[in-house]
Design goal:
Mean pLDDT: 89
CATH architecture of the largest domain: 3-Layer(aba) Sandwich
GO molecular function: DNA-binding transcription factor activity; transcription cis-regulatory region binding
Order of helices and strands: HHHHEHEHEHEEHEHEHEHEEHEE
Shape: elongated
InterPro entries: HTH_LacI, Lambda_DNA-bd_dom_sf, Peripla_BP/Lac1_sug-bd_dom, Peripla_BP_I
CATH superfamily of the largest domain: Response regulator
CATH topology of the largest domain: Rossmann fold
Pfam families: LacI, Peripla_BP_1
Number of strands: 12
Keywords: DNA-binding, Transcription, Transcription regulation
Organism: Bacillus taeanensis
Structural class: alpha/beta
Distance between the termini: 89 Å
Strand order of the largest sheet: 2-1-3-4-5-11
Low-confidence stretches: 1-7
């Protein structure tokens, strides 16, 4: 009597031999690592398809000893924007049974690097990273080499192919500056942030585009970099008020900077809105109850957190899926500060 042939699962070693690569290379291809070329990855994927290889994620998780813990790295928990983003991340990941571990960099690359290393050592299942403004090249190279799912949120790192969620900062800045122009302002400052940040660079593009569209020249003396905090806003304001021809309006990197600018105006006996129009970006909860209520551009922090969490979950479940880049469209919220 003939015995029924037992079904044998295709192994990763067989895939590697079929593709003519090492098992280690095949493993990197399966995990969507950036350490191999696209051509090699495609060759391995073709062999997987032809042999009928099925990726066993449960076994892979057991081998890697990764848990259902997810790391979230943000720049400043004191910024209410990130508090909202955290809520979105937490609610989305909780539905999938993940636990969130929070780390704060205070926008310092050294702290970001240490947090990433610590999370890797603890074998987290993935990381949602809000990169610091001036991430060093060495840190970027390490992130590219780490075999762990990472989603970027709010800011993108150059030359790092990861899933990303953010808003269209250029359009948001155009909305803000365009609003000020329609109000009759011609000397408009851009205050706060660091030019090392991709988010700042996109805001600067929007700021310049809005001015150029109506034939206004860009005065770099009105573009002041500073910390994205209330204190940073106050310091940036002091610089532009010392200009022989000070601005009549300010577009601020975010709402915290805008709050600092309005406080700085009051400290000098000036009235926000009357003596200088102020517009922020983020639309944090405090914006609607500030004095005066702040005109701002909504960047949907909670939604960014939700989408980033969903993308990370999808990446963990299916490491071979195509890279996703989600850009949300901002909305201008007009209040009394402008």
């Amino acid at each position: 009597m003939k015995t029924k042939k037992k079904y044998s699962r295709v192994t990763l070693q067989e895939v590697a031999e079929h593709a003519g690569v090492s098992r280690a290379t095949a493993s990197l291809a399966v995990r969507n690592s950036q350490n191999i070329s696209k051509a090699t990855r495609n060759k391995v994927l073709k062999s997987m398809t032809e042999l009928g290889y099925v990726y066993d994620r449960i076994a892979a998780n057991l081998r890697s000893q990764r848990s259902s813990t997810i790391g979230l790295i943000i720049t400043d928990i004191a910024n209410p924007f990130f508090s909202e983003l955290l809520i979105g991340v937490h609610h989305a990941l909780e539905k999938h049974g993940y636990t969130v571990v929070l780390g704060t960099t205070f926008d310092l690359d050294a702290k970001q690097d240490k947090l990433l290393s610590t999370m890797l050592e603890h074998r987290v299942g993935g990381v949602i990273l809000c990169p610091v403004s001036d991430s060093l090249k060495e840190t970027i190279e390490r992130i590219k080499q780490w075999d762990i799912p990472i989603v970027h949120a709010v800011r993108e790192l150059p030359d790092v192919s990861c899933d990303y969620v953010g808003i269209d900062y250029k359009i948001g800045a155009q909305m803000a500056v365009g609003h000020l122009i329609r109000k009759g302002h011609r000397r408009i400052a851009f205050l706060g942030g660091s030019s090392e940040s991709s988010a700042w660079q996109e805001r600067k593009k929007g700021y310049c585009t809005a001015l150029q569209q109506v034939g206004l020249q860009i005065d770099e003396a009105l573009v002041i970099e500073n910390a994205v905090t209330r204190e940073g806003g106050k310091k940036a304001l002091q610089q532009v008020l010392n200009d022989p021809n000070p601005p009549t309006a300010a577009f601020c990197f975010n709402d915290l900077v805008a709050f600092g600018v309005m406080q700085g105006l009051r400290d000098r006996g000036l009235v926000p809105s009357e003596d200088m129009a102020v517009v922020g970006l983020d639309d944090v909860q405090e914006a609607s109850i500030s004095n005066p209520p702040l005109t701002t551009v909504s960047s949907f922090a909670r939604l960014i957190g939700t989408y980033a969490a969903d993308l990370l979950h999808q990446r963990i479940v299916d490491p071979l899926r195509e890279r996703q880049r989600m850009i949300l469209q901002p909305e201008l919220v007009v209040r009394d500060s402008s």
